[in-house]
Design brief:
The complex is a heterodimer of chains A (681) and B (150). Chain A is built from 20 helices and 10 strands. By secondary structure, chain A is of the alpha+beta class. Among the domains of chain A are: 164 residues, no CATH class; 142 residues, no CATH class; 113 residues, Tick-borne Encephalitis virus Glycoprotein, domain 1 (Sandwich). Helices cover 25% and strands 30% of the residues of chain B. The longest helix of chain B is centred in the N-terminal third of the chain and has 27 residues. The relative contact order of chain B is 0.13. The chains are: A alpha+beta (681), B alpha+beta (150). At the A-B interface, helix 3, helix 13, strand 1, helix 14 and strand 9 of A face helix 1 and strand 1 of B.
């Protein structure tokens, strides 16, 4: 299996190289047979990458420690699920995983467009094949998962305990699925530039792929935050670390694109801008991988430093130069078809949304790369930390939140004063009402008050849109409330799915603003001793140590402290935090000790317990943190993902009924008997 | 009548200009030099204002120099980049990965007594998410299993 897997990797590289060559050549000189050969070669590449991946998976699951990769990331006593996920736990495997997803996406793209977009497809195939060549070559030459050890260890060294977490098993694949999906719109943009077919055609082809990318990035980032929060034990979920920023950057430009694409569809504006955003999103995904994998920027994530950083740098520079030349030679074809008519129009709101999103992306990029920039310009490394990112991004983020509420309220082209008054009355009242209520309840943090006021404004906007839509359906079709709601969303998935995503954003911002009220206590407790603390809601908690215990589990030695946590007027609960020393199957310690935090969850706040260490026999050194509204982050992420899914869900209207007709039967239905698939989610 | 496009551009420039101003000012206020012990020593010799200025220092912990205070909340140790060695004191949460010979990033101030007083301590394993199979082979008492192992 190992030999087959390794050979398949090389075969895939050859196939991808062939596909790139003949696809571009075939498109250029108009030879249909060459184009067809290129497409077949792409399918073959996919098959070989699958074979190669199966080879690595089988080596991991059967614990074949002759492979350096298997010995470095797994051990015989590792649960099977983590043997499986170790595939993307390490550098070499994650590169192969990347190839696997890219090959899969490429095959899907080719199949979905086998009869559509035929003028674009040779170049789409060629571009995707070129990207694949890069990734496969980097895997084969720079980070080969099939590299052998010159001795066979009795056991592997195991997977880092911090990665032995269900969230970590699925967080990287989601990010990769998101990152890699940006390659497809990029390939279409390149194809459209080469063929000068820069109208709505290529945009329609890439919208869904942009959504796929956005959705997986959203899920991946949320899972990453969740993992950092429950596993790393520092009490937060976002630290503006370079690797976190790297995942945020393509999300920001991708989100900008999903908004600006609507302006090009509706008004023929922003043609250059859209191409730029698509290309930028892809390049930022590559840059993200580069930052993550090269170790060029100091990051606590510090993956193994390796030569593949140079490969990525080379690829990045080549891509920027090539697309730069393409765009520059086609500026004429990218002229706008219309002009902005009024500042008080939905276009303007969308444009500002883009300005702000790209502004945030730029500041994050700047802050992330600043150590490199300052070293190049002034000769000394200067780093910026969370204060920099917060100073710049909190105001920009709040502006963006406000625009989220404004956009849907203004008409396209030009809004009238009457229209504005009617639309804005309720949302403005809702926002100010919430802000005033919180102020009256004693909230004094400026940014938090602004956040919640805007949150109230946007939520009322969204609510108003739903109420209006449902009301209109009920009047026109005489439908009941739930039916009207389902149909409203089902028939206008992009619009109402989008509103649901916006609501998720509101929930996220509410959670972020909650961070202002975090409270933290460091203390030592002997068994039986108590500690009393006030939480952010001014309620009294008493924590009593139940003592320290030491015991062994499957693959680790555990030291645990248990506290009884009691809020005044509520029943007590137990909360536990552990220090773990992992061992391999021979009983040798592997990795440094790790900490398992204890979390008492609720909608209002988390009580977060970390065991730092034990002094003497039983004195626990601990930190207790009250984290308000943390769960809202995960809920916000889930709501956004649901909204994204609704937007993406295929419309089962005409295509569906056509298929039914072609199937030999036609069913005539009353509107009320439509199959549930049309009603959406 | 000013065209909408012009108005939009003015608005955009205002937004981005404010963002740019915030970026520039906060880099000036919160940006920190990232230095090695050798560079830090050279800096303070050239310009004494670098004493008691917040900086980050990246270096390796000298084995055997770690002294933990009882309670596990404070620690002193020496770090080196090969050319210079600087003593560090730190009070706060000590990360799990902090031990002899790891690379650390400390943030704090270097004082005139030649002490680096750190307020944050990050420890990095060069191979945090990776473990070299050969790493533990030389450990005294390593239990090699049966088989053709070395």
């Amino acid at each position: 299996m190992i030999l087959l897997g390794e050979l398949s990797l090389w075969a895939a590289l050859l196939m991808a190289a062939w596909s790139a060559t003949v696809s571009f050549a075939g498109g250029r000189i108009g030879r249909v047979d060459l184009v067809a050969s290129g497409e077949r070669a792409m399918y073959a590449t996919f098959a070989f990458v699958v074979l190669s991946s199966i080879g690595l998976w089988s080596a991991l699951l059967t614990s074949d420690f002759s492979l350096r990769f298997v010995a470095s990331y797994t051990s015989a006593n590792l649960p099977a699920v983590y043997k499986f996920s170790a595939f993307w736990g390490g550098q070499a495997g994650s590169m192969l995983f990347w190839c696997l997803i890219l090959a899969l996406y490429s095959a899907i793209t080719l199949y979905a467009n086998r009869r559509r977009n035929r003028e674009l497809m040779p170049y789409v195939t060629g571009t995707l094949a070129l990207v694949l060549v890069f990734f496969l070559a980097t895997t084969a030459f720079g980070a080969n998962p099939y590299a052998r050890l010159d001795w066979v260890p009795p056991d592997g060294t195991g997977l880092n305990p911090q990665l032995q977490n269900p969230g970590m098993a699925i967080h990287p694949p989601n990010l990769y699925l998101g990152y890699v999906a940006t390659a497809v719109p990029f390939a279409f943009a390149i194809a459209a530039l080469i063929t000068r077919r820069l109208d709505a055609e290529w945009l329609a082809a890439v919208r869904r792929w942009s959504l796929v990318s956005w959705l997986f990035l959203t899920i991946g980032i949320t899972l990453g935050m969740w993992w950092a929060y429950v596993e790393l034990g520092w009490g937060g979920y976002w630290a503006w670390d370079p690797v976190e920023n790297a995942s945020l950057l393509p999300w920001l430009t991708g989100t900008a694109f999903l908004h600006s694409i609507m302006i090009q569809e509706k008004r023929g504006m922003l043609r250059k801008w859209n191409v730029t955003l698509v290309v930028a999103t892809f390049l930022l995904s590559i840059l993200g991988t580069f930052i993550t994998r090269s170790g060029v920027i100091e990051s606590v994530h510090s993956f193994a430093q390796s030569p593949i950083g140079n490969w990525f740098a080379g690829f990045l520079v080549t891509s920027i130069v090539a697309t730069g030349i393409l765009v520059a030679t086609r500026l004429k074809d990218l002229e706008a078809r219309a002009e902005l008519e009024s500042m008080v129009s939905r276009e303007a709101a969308f444009l500002y949304n883009n300005v702000v999103l790209v502004g945030i992306a730029f500041s994050v990029l700047w802050g992330t790369l600043f150590p490199i920039i300052s070293e190049a310009v002034r000769g000394s490394k200067i780093t910026v930390g969370p204060p920099f990112f917060n100073t710049v991004n909190i105001p920009l983020g709040l502006l963006l939140l406000g625009l989220t509420g404004v956009g849907p309220l203004i008409a396209w082209r030009r809004a009238s004063v009457a229209n504005l008054k009617r639309q804005f009355a309720a949302p403005v009242a809702g926002g100010l009402g919430l802000g005033a209520a919180l102020f009256a309840l004693g909230m004094r943090d400026g940014y938090a008050l602004v956040s919640y006021t805007l949150a109230g404004f946007v939520t009322t906007t969204i609510g108003q849109e739903f109420v209006k839509g449902v009301g209109a359906r009920r009047r026109m079709h005489g439908e009941s409330m739930p039916v009207a709601l389902m149909r409203l969303v089902g028939r206008n998935r992009r619009r109402y799915g989008g509103y649901i995503v916006h609501f998720g954003i509101v929930v996220l911002f509410a959670a972020f603003a909650g961070l202002a009220f975090k409270k933290e206590y460091d203390l030592s407790l002997t068994p039986g001793a108590s500690f009393t603390a006030l939480d952010p809601y001014n309620r009294t908690w008493t924590f009593t140590s139940q003592g320290v215990s030491r015991y062994e589990e499957l693959n680790r030695q555990v030291t645990a402290v248990i506290l009884e946590a009691k809020r005044a007027g509520a029943p007590p609960t137990l909360i536990k935090s552990e220090k773990r020393q992992h061992v391999d199957s021979q009983g040798n310690p592997s990795f440094e000790p790790s900490t398992e935090v204890g979390i008492l969850e609720s909608l209002r706040q988390d009580v977060y317990l970390v065991l730092h260490g034990v002094t003497g026999e039983e004195t626990a050194e601990i930190r207790i943190t009250f984290n308000p509204l943390v769960w809202w982050v995960w809920y916000g992420g889930i709501i956004m993902a649901i909204g994204g899914l609704i937007v993406m869900w295929p419309q089962a209207t005409r295509a569906g009924s056509k298929r039914r007709a072609e199937g030999g039967y036609v069913v005539v239905m009353q509107p009320s008997e439509r199959p549930p698939v049309e009603a959406g989610v | 009548m000013v065209r909408a496009r012009t108005k939009f551009i003015i608005g955009g420039v205002l937004v981005l200009g404010t963002a740019g101003y915030l970026m520039a000012s906060s880099i000036g206020e919160t940006g920190m030099y990232y230095l090695t012990p050798g560079e830090l020593t050279a800096k303070v010799q050239g310009d004494s204002t670098f004493y008691d200025t917040g900086v980050k220092m990246g270096a390796r912990v000298v084995p055997g120099t770690i002294e933990r205070e009882p309670g596990g909340r404070a620690v002193s140790f020496r770090v080196t980049d090969g050319s210079q060695t600087i003593p560090v004191t730190y009070r706060g949460v000590i990360p799990d990965t902090f031990t002899d010979s790891v690379d650390v990033v400390v943030e704090g101030r270097y004082n005139k007594n030649g002490q680096f007083v750190a307020t944050t301590l990050l420890a990095k394993c060069a191979s945090r998410y990776e473990n070299a199979p050969d790493k533990y082979q030389a450990t005294p008492g390593y239990k090699a299993a049966k088989g053709p192992a070395a």
